[in-house]
Design brief:
87 residues; alpha+beta; 2 helices; globular
Length: 87
């Protein structure tokens, strides 16, 4: 097998067999805008409505969905020293 071929692997994700590019497995939080957002509070009643809907879709279909674009994003105050929002 050539070194430049990317493997797609199957693994158990919360009780469902899913497929993922091996080089991307476990990286969604590093890429997802939600993890930088002030309103992202998973498990809390006041969690972001958009994040809740994305999560429902992920659970229903066994997906992992990093969010790259969001109309209601607010940079977390705790991260203002590392990121800059440009309007």
């Amino acid at each position: 097998m050539a070194d430049d071929i990317v493997k797609i692997i199957k693994y158990d994700h919360h009780g469902t067999d899913v497929y993922v590019r091996e080089d991307l497995k476990g990286t969604h939080a590093d890429m997802c805008l939600c993890y930088l957002c002030e309103d992202f509070k998973p498990g809390d009643d006041d969690n972001c409505m958009v994040a809740n809907e994305v999560y429902k879709n992920c659970v229903e279909f066994g997906l992992v969905t990093p969010v790259y674009e969001c109309p209601v994003f607010k940079l977390s105050k705790a991260l203002e020293d590392r990121f800059e929002v440009v309007e």
